[in-house]
Write a structure and sequence with these properties.
Elements lengths: L10 H5 L25 E7 L7 E13 L2 E11 L2 H9 L5 E13 L10 H4 L10 E12 L2 E13 L12 E11 L7 E14 L4 E3 L19 H17 L6 E10 L3 E4 L10
């Protein structure tokens, strides 16, 4: 996706009171920046049937990259509570997979009878006026590396409680293909491209509430740049960047039900570890 951003900085907010000074390249304020951006996000899945059995998965999408004639997603982090799924993702699909714990806690949500936004949101399944029960599910995701563990995030989302009279509209049936890039990791150095074919029911829902670990490890300051990154700093920075994607302001949230996903074998695009792709 391509776009244009214009950012205006009032002089007083940058320079304080008194005379405004500008560097030769910037000229006089306001300063306008034009460019392009990309979208990121995450998805949380529970598979009740797969080659690796039942398992949970959290995938953080760092961004969308352009590969004519379409755009492709690129996963920055994949967390699964299955050793087999982790190994397969690393070796066969080139994913940055890690083993994690998914601790779930479910609490009933009190019935509500009025929504401050009126009835429209309820008509499309997003409002809070309900005639059936909902549960609040808290999912705590913790990455596990040998004997060590690191909290990644807590995801709070509402789920419908099926009842004998449960007939909530689950959205239209769709089929689609989601092309993705992977590889260039320590487990698979090749640049790969694969496709996920989905058949499901989809509907818009309220975004989940995501909170990160407290506190996050601070990123290294500029004074230490000349010393190079340690292995621990590289891991911490990558983890913090993935968490930052999840903590960003949501634009859209979709719920997939009755999901059947078919993952095709990846193809090798390049075995050059220096290959790069532009952001969409």
């Amino acid at each position: 996706m391509k776009g244009c951003a214009k950012i205006r900085f009032p002089a007083a907010s940058l320079m304080g009171l008194g005379e405004t000074k500008s560097s030769p390249g910037y000229g006089n304020p306001p300063w306008i920046f034009k460019g392009r951006y990309t979208l990121g996000g995450f998805f949380l899945a529970n598979y009740d049937d797969s080659p690796a059995g039942v398992f949970d998965e959290l995938v953080v999408i760092a961004g969308i990259v352009w590969n004519p004639p379409t755009s492709c997603a690129w996963a920055a982090r994949v967390l699964v509570n299955s050793e087999e799924a982790c190994h397969h993702g690393r070796k066969e699909v080139g994913l940055p997979s890690q083993v994690a714990r998914f601790s779930k806690r479910i609490t009933p949500v009190p019935r509500q009878t009025k929504d401050k936004f009126g009835g429209f949101l309820n008509m499309i399944g997003v409002g809070t006026t309900i005639c059936h029960s909902k549960d609040c599910m808290d999912v705590q995701v913790t990455e596990v590396v040998g004997p060590a563990s690191s909290d990644i995030c807590n995801i709070k989302l509402l789920t419908d409680v099926p009842t004998p009279k449960f007939n909530k509209w689950m959205g239209p049936s769709i089929t689609m293909s989601l092309p993705s890039f992977s590889g260039q990791t320590e487990y698979n150095a090749n640049l790969l491209k694969y496709s996920c074919r989905l058949a499901c029911r989809v509907r818009a829902v309220r975004p989940a509430k995501v909170s990160g670990p407290s506190p996050l490890k601070k990123e290294r300051n500029l004074d230490s740049e000349s010393r190079g990154f340690t292995a621990e700093e590289v891991v911490d920075n990558a983890r913090n960047l993935s968490i930052s994607v999840m903590l960003s302001k949501p634009i859209l949230a979709l719920e997939f039900n009755f999901l059947e996903m078919q993952v095709e074998a990846p193809i090798i695009l390049s075995n050059n570890t220096t290959s790069s792709l532009p952001a969409a």
